[in-house]
Each structure stands twice: as C-alpha cells, then as structure tokens.
Amino acid sequence: MIPYGRHHIDNDDIEAVIAALKSDSLTGGAWVGQFEEDLARFTSARNAVVCNSGTAALHLALMALDIGAGDVIVVPSLTFLATANAGIYVGADVKFADVDPETGLLTSETLNAALRELPAERVKAVLPVHLNGAMSDVRSTSLPSGMGHVAIVEDACHAIGGTYSGSDILVGSAPWAAMTCFSFHPVKTIAMGEGGAITTESDDLAERLRLLRNHGMERDAARFVMPDQGVDSVGKPFPWFYEMATVGYNYRASDLHCALGTSQLKKAPGFLARRRELACRYNDLIGELAPIVKPVPRSAPDGDGWHLFSVHIDFHAVGKPREQVMQELRERGIGSQVHYLPVHRQPFYQQKYGKQHLPGADSYYQKQLSLPLFPAMEDTDVDRVLEALAQVLNLRAVV
Ligand SMILES: *Cc1c(COP(=O)(O)O)cnc(C)c1O
C-alpha cells in the first residue's frame, strides 16, 4: 500500500530519542533549546518557540497578540480545522474568507472581499495558509488602508522550507508576518510525533509565547508585578517563587519530541528535495491525464514546500464519484485523501455563523484529491499511482 503521506524515520532519529531518554531530563532540558536554535537557523527566523502541536502554535500566536472577545480573525475556509479553531479558543470571532478555486489559496482579492464585510477596528489578525506547501501571497501590503493594526499570522504547517514567490525569503522569517506557525505532526515534512513551533522576528512576542506555553509562569524577578511578595529583604528572589499575571497553558514540547525534531530537521533539506523531485515527475507525466486530471497550479514550484500533491479531477465528466475513485485506488494499493472540507461548512461554524456562500472554496473542494507524496517514495511509485489513476478513471495508461 502506498499511503498518501508518511513520516520517514532512520536509525539516527531513533538514536537521538534514545539519547534523550538516557539523559537527565525528559522535558525542559537541553533538547528544547537545541531544536529551537536549529529551527531558527533553518527558517532564518530571529526566534523560534517550540510547543506540543501546530494547533497549540496557532493558539499561542493569537494569545500573544492579546486577541479575544470582540475581535475578529480572518481565515481562509480551505484549511485544516485548527486554523479557525484557534480563534474560537481565544473567544474571538472567525470570519471565513473565500479562496482561489484553482489554487485553494487566500488571495488579496478574496481577503479584501471578506474584510469589506467587517468593521475595520474589530479585525485583529489575518491567517494566510500555505495550502499544499504553495505560498499564499497575502502580505501586509494586501491589507486596505486603515488596517495597519492587523497582524499577519501565517499557518505554514504545510510549508516548512518554502520561499515566498519572487524572493528568496524563507517561510518563517517574513518581515510582514508577526508570527509563523508550523506543525511537526508525522504527516508533515518533519515529524516530532506531536509538535509545533512559532517563529517571529519580535523578541517581545517570543518572550510572551514562552510564558504562555508554560502556564504564564514568570520567574524573572525583574518582571514581577508584585515584587514585594517574591523577594527577601535584600531584594533576592525566593527560590520557589513565580508569578502568574496572565493565564497560560501547558503547551511545552518534551525533550524526547525535541530530540526527534532536531534529528529530523537535519534531514529536512533532503526530504524537501525528494518531495520536489517526485512532484516534478508527477508533473511531467500527469499531462497525459488532462483535461480530466490537472495538478493544482503552483506559482513557484522551486520555492514550494510540497506538502501535498493535490490534483483536480473532473469526477462529473468521468461519471464516478470521488469516494468510488478513492476506493478503487485503494483496491490497487494506492492511498489518497481529500484536503479539506471547507471549514465554513462544519456544523459548529454553520450553527454559529449560518450558511455562508464561498464558491471558490466549495469549487476547490469538489474536485480536489491528494495523491501520495512522501520522501521514501520511489520514482516508480509515482508511475504506479498515475497508472492506477488512469485505469480507475478509464483514461489511457500513461506508463
Ligand atoms: C496539521 C495542520 C495544523 C495543525 O497541526 P497539529 O500539529 O496537527 O496540531 C494546522 N493547520 C494546518 C494547515 C495543518 O495542516
């Protein structure tokens, strides 16, 4: 069976975790700082703050910006649940923006259409999602005038290692982004088991993120709100003392997870190069299946994070519903997946905000299928996938 995605673990990854297991600390130790340092270097970011999931990263980012009740965040509807749910966690409202029906990405046009329906002062953040690994070109310059206060918080869970089109700026270090969130769930480019991170150019935000991932516990006496409670008569802080001025969470990542992340990150360039090679092979061969099957267009394949190899299929023209195509692929040993049901259609959000009309997201969803893409795939696996797809769709065999 060729799954649609899969982590890749080598002996050195296993050894890194064993080393962490044998060390003095299983959490809160040296691996956490090591991973953060390596990740900051890899993304060219000034700060990287690791946490225990991509979802926690998004939640922390919104908390760090003090977003809450009465505020609105704008999220493309074509994304994983977590991008929107982070807004709900902080008590904000979520405004779903439409996406380009071909790329699935939030664009300046779809963003501005969503913003026109909102009072400018309530909007606090926009969360572009680099869907499939393709970079959304929404930047602070995409915002209309009078919205200079709106923060760009990127969901880069699909895009580590990607660069913005028309530049060599790495995702995670964009000067226009307040923060960039990553996931290291095993299906993503590198695996921590569960894990995530936020990168930011702002030292203040990084500081706040670290506080919030650890209950809001402040141990630095210089920042105590009630210093008289925490220090002795000569101003020396009590060894047991900490203050909590803001409520935070336990969103820490353990040393075991960070050891794995550190080891995996060393291989990220190789993983990414292999993903790009495989995507190239798909692109070279998939023309044979046109116009029934078309790869989702990528504006800059060389800078793409290539998380998913997404195609659009005209299931209507083939006369086979998507679930049957997936089933018949599965019978031929090929996994596939759909990314994603637009989040505005989820019962929770429909109940909260009513039925919404986002034709771009709906159109993308109707025709989308993710084909297998992961670094351990062989070139011949790509051929097998396309051969099986050609058979299932009754198209001429490609290879
Ligand atoms: C995976 C993912 C997340 C959440 O990451 P977890 O680590 O699974 O919590 C958020 N957004 C997108 C786009 C994702 O793909």
Account of the 3D structure:
With 399 residues, the chain is of the alpha/beta class. The protein has 2 domains: 11-264, 3-Layer(aba) Sandwich (Aspartate Aminotransferase, domain 2), CATH 3.40.640; 268-392, Alpha-Beta Complex (Aspartate Aminotransferase, domain 1). The protein is built from 13 helices and 12 strands. The protein has helices spanning 11-22, 30-43, 54-64, 81-89, 108-115, 203-212, 227-230, 255-286, 315-318, 322-331, 347-353, 359-367, 379-392, and strands at residues 47-51, 72-76, 93-97, 123-126, 151-155, 179-183, 196-200, 217-218, 243-244, 293-295, 309-313, 368-371. The strands form 3 sheets. The protein has a 7-stranded mixed sheet, sandwiched between helices. The chain has a 3-stranded antiparallel sheet with strand order 10-11-12. Helix 3 (54-64) packs across helix 6. The chain is globular, with a radius of gyration of 22 Å. The structure holds pyridoxal-5'-phosphate. Pyridoxal-5'-phosphate is lined by residues 53-55, 79-80, 82-83, 129, 155, 157-158, 183, 185, 196.
